[in-house]
Structures are given as structure tokens and as C-alpha cells.
């Protein structure tokens, strides 16, 4: 019997989802095409250096998706489906507290965590759950109706969930079941055709377009699928040349002369899609909704907690501006970075601001006794080599920006109420699986490599 491993299931799922989304949202096809062109030119320009943060095969296939669900029970089911694909919940993002825009959701990202699985296919899904218990968004009556509506719907057929459990338990599926699982899973994230109750949708939309997108319909859908590109500024230019209007910024760190870190993202708003609406008098009309969009991203080196604090601090200063003489936030950010952010991978590594794996250099190892004086000497004298660890996660502020830039209304949030306390522990409890800490994952990977290098060099520790 031919068996399909979780890694292959994940790669096939990402590929099929991409085919489906390309049929549903034609501008996505353009985005993927332009991303390929840009990656090709970077590869020609930079040669092997272009693959420093992942092989070109990985980057070409790399996607993240985003979905939104309504309840802990739905989130548990999502966790089973992604569990089948070897993906685990990593990171907690509270989009309710974003400064620029408040969205009534808390989120995590499902993704593979082991380096070999990430290298095989790093598919990840940013997954948000509605927060009906937060009184700043929903009054008691709306909360009650919303919870009743959500409890009555079924997003995933039982057959899909049973196959998912089997794949998770056995870490593989026989070919035939794998086929069935993939078909059902991809279908569960397609845009459904059943009519939307217009009055209900509108009522939720007055609170938040995201609340309506989640709780106003009886199904879920993938709302964007994001390819990875090696030069996002170039991509932005080429998309604009093709007549696709991008949002006016690239979110995340500025373009600058030093190493790429964390994550830079930009997006465009998808066209309105026709949807059947059920009017209050029972009649069906065709309306149009703009709920889906296109996004693209460039990934850089993962930062340690200290590095992340430095990053957040520089971003905050770029936002507040003032004294730098240049008023454009992006060029202000850039000049702050050029002055203050570590300019080389070496500085990031030695300042313990970025995460790396450290490999002993074989020829050097045979060559005598290494200095016992620490990482700087070992690096500078060629005993160990530092390879950057790529950032596999998301940024709350960019996520909030991406949500907001693609919404129709601002929505309302009444800050005279106290927030409902959804946090990472609450989310772990709700999913029934531990939400992993991304910093701890990178730290473990780095630490393991340092121990390996120390062992190979005969040093007690590095
Ligand atoms: C998710 C927005 C967040 C990202 O890349 O930061 C996101 C959503 O719109 O549901 O996907
Ligand atoms: Ni996204």
C-alpha cells in the first residue's frame, strides 16, 4: 500500500489550495506569476546568496493562508485538520488591542516546527477566532444571537475530521484516504455558495466587517493566500506597473542596507465577488462582497526577544517622527535603521539579537586547538559558521494593518467596557493543545546547534 506522509500531505494541501484560490481570485495568479519572476531575477543577481534564507524550492512553494472561525469548538476542529498536516499552533496574537485598528479576534498560526519539516514545506495558516464575549464589541443580546448562530453551524464534515485524526495518529495516510482527506479539506475552505442572510450580516458588519465575515455566514473560507518573494520592493513596483493597486505601504522593517529581519508584507484588495443574499422578505438577490484579498511577503532572520524589543522601539520612533527632518515615515524609519540597527549578521549574532545555527567548520576542526574564548573568536577565526534562522511567524502590527486595509468600515469598539481576558493560556485551553512560544522554538534550535558545535570542537560550551 502506498502511504502518504504528513509532510507530503501538507505540501499537496498547500498546492491544491493554491490552485483553488487561483481559480477563485484571478489577481492571485498574477501575484504568484510576478513573485516567480522576481525570485528568478534575484537568483540571477545574487546567485547562491539568494538562498541564504531557504532553498529556492522551498521559497517557490512557500505560502501562508488565513482563516477565521467563530468558536473554541471550531478552532479545535481546525487544530485536528492542521494536526494531520504536521502543523501546530505557534504564537498568540491579540488583534483587539492593535493601535491603528481593533478587530474582535485573537489568533495563532498553525505551522510545522521541526527544521526538516519546515525545509520540506513550511505551509502556515494564520487562524483567528472571534471574541463574542468581549463587551467592547458585542452587547449581551448580540453576543447571545451570535453564539447561537455559531453553535448551529457545521464547518467541517465528520468524515474529514475522522481522516484527520487518523493522519495525526499514524503520521501518514494510505493513498486513497489521503486523496479523500485532501479533497474534503480543500473544499471546506472554498467560498460557499449558499445565500447570506442580509439583515444578520449587516447587523454584524456595523460592529466589525470581520465579525460579519466570520459570524454572518454558515461556512468558513480561506481569505488570502500569500506567496513569498525575495525582493518585495521590486514586486511592489511590478504589480503596480501591471495596474494592480497595492496598499500604500510595505509593512514591517524598512528597506535598508543591512540584513533582512522578521517579515515584510504588502497586499492588495481583491475585487468584489458576487454573492447570493437572502433579503428580509425571503427573496434572493445577488450582491457583492469584498472579503478576500491578495498578500505577498518577504522573510528575514528571526530576532531574539532583545532583538525584537530593539525592532519595536525603532518602529515606535519612526512612527512618532519629528526630529529627523524627513517626514515620510518610511524614509524616517530607514534613516533610523541605518544609524542604529545592527548592520551585519555578525553584529546580530554577537549582540544576541538574531537567531542563528552554528556549524563547526570541518577543515578548521582538524587543524589544531580552537580558541576557548567564546563565540566572537570562533566566528572570526573561522572555527564556526553562523547560518541565519528564518522568521517563521507573524507580526501583530502588520496583521492588524493587513486586516484593516482590506476592510470596508472601521467598526466600533466601546472602551468604556473592560476587555474580556483572552490570552495565550486561555487559547491553549480552548484548543486543547499547547500554543507554542515562537521565541522558545528558535532558542532551542540555536542552543542545540551551539552544543553540537562545542562538542565537535572539544569545548565544554560556547
Ligand atoms: C489575517 C491577517 C493576518 C498576516 O499575514 O499578518 C495575516 C486575516 O486577515 O484573517 O494574515
Ligand atoms: Ni497574511
Automatic annotation (TrEMBL):
It is an enzyme of class 1 (oxidoreductase). InterPro entries: HGLS (IPR009770), YdcJ_bac-like (IPR047869). Pfam families: HGLS (PF07063). Keywords: Dioxygenase, Iron, Oxidoreductase. Its cofactor is Fe(2+). Gene3D superfamilies: Uncharacterised protein PF07063, DUF1338. Its EC number is 1.13.11.93. GO terms for molecular function: dioxygenase activity. Belongs to the 2-oxoadipate dioxygenase/decarboxylase family. PANTHER family: 2-OXOADIPATE DIOXYGENASE_DECARBOXYLASE (PTHR39479:SF2), PTHR39479. This is 2-oxoadipate dioxygenase/decarboxylase.
Amino acid at each position: 500500500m502506498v502511504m502518504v506522509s504528513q509532510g507530503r500531505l501538507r505540501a499537496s494541501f498547500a498546492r491544491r489550495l493554491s490552485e483553488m484560490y487561483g481559480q477563485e481570485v484571478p489577481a492571485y495568479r498574477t501575484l504568484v506569476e510576478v513573485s516567480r519572476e522576481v525570485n528568478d531575477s534575484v537568483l540571477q543577481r545574487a546567485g547562491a546568496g539568494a538562498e541564504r534564507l531557504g532553498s529556492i524550492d522551498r521559497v517557490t512553494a512557500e505560502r501562508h493562508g488565513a482563516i477565521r472561525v467563530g468558536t473554541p469548538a471550531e478552532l479545535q476542529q481546525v487544530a485536528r485538520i492542521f494536526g494531520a498536516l504536521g502543523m501546530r499552533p505557534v504564537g498568540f496574537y491579540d488583534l483587539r488591542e492593535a493601535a491603528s485598528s481593533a478587530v474582535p479576534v485573537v489568533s495563532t498560526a498553525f505551522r510545522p516546527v521541526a527544521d526538516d519539516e519546515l525545509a520540506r514545506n513550511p505551509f502556515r495558516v494564520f487562524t483567528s477566532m472571534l471574541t463574542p464575549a468581549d463587551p467592547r464589541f458585542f452587547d449581551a443580546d448580540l453576543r447571545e444571537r451570535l453564539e447561537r448562530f455559531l453553535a448551529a453551524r457545521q464547518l467541517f464534515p465528520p468524515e474529514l475530521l475522522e481522516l484527520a485524526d487518523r493522519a495525526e495518529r499514524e503520521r501518514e495516510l494510505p493513498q486513497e484516504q489521503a486523496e479523500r482527506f485532501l479533497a474534503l479539506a480543500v473544499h471546506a475552505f472554498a467560498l460557499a455558495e449558499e445565500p447570506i442572510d442580509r439583515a444578520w450580516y449587516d447587523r454584524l458588519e456595523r460592529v466589525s466587517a470581520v465579525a460579519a465575515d466570520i459570524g454572518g455566514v454558515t461556512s468558513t473560507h480561506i481569505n488570502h493566500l500569500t506567496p513569498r518573494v525575495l525582493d518585495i520592493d521590486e514586486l511592489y513596483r511590478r504589480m503596480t506597473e501591471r495596474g494592480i493597486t497595492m496598499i500604500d505601504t510595505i509593512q514591517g522593517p524598512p528597506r535598508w542596507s543591512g540584513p533582512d529581519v522578521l517579515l515584510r508584507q504588502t497586499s492588495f484588495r481583491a475585487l468584489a465577488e458576487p454573492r447570493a443574499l437572502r433579503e428580509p422578505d425571503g427573496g434572493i438577490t445577488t450582491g457583492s462582497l469584498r472579503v478576500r484579498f491578495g498578500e505577498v511577503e518577504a522573510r528575514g532572520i528571526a530576532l531574539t526577544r532583545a532583538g525584537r524589543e530593539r525592532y519595536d522601539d525603532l518602529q515606535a520612533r519612526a512612527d512618532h517622527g519629528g526630529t529627523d527632518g524627513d517626514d515620510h515615515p518610511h524614509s524616517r524609519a530607514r534613516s533610523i535603521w541605518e544609524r542604529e540597527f545592527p548592520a551585519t549578521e555578525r553584529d546580530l549574532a554577537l549582540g544576541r539579537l538574531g537567531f542563528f545555527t552554528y556549524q563547526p567548520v570541518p577543515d578548521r576542526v582538524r587543524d589544531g586547538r580552537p580558541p576557548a574564548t567564546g563565540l566572537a573568536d570562533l566566528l572570526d577565526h573561522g572555527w564556526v559558521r553562523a547560518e541565519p534562522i528564518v522568521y517563521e511567524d507573524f507580526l501583530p502590527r502588520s496583521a492588524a494593518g493587513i486586516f484593516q486595509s482590506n476592510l470596508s468600515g472601521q467598526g466600533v469598539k466601546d472602551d468604556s467596557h473592560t476587555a474580556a481576558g483572552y490570552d495565550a493560556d486561555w487559547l491553549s485551553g480552548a484548543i486543547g493543545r499547547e500554543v507554542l512560544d515562537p521565541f522558545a522554538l528558535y532558542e532551542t534550535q540555536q542552543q542545540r546547534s551551539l552544543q553540537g558545535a562545542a562538542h565537535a570542537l572539544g569545548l565544554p560550551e560556547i
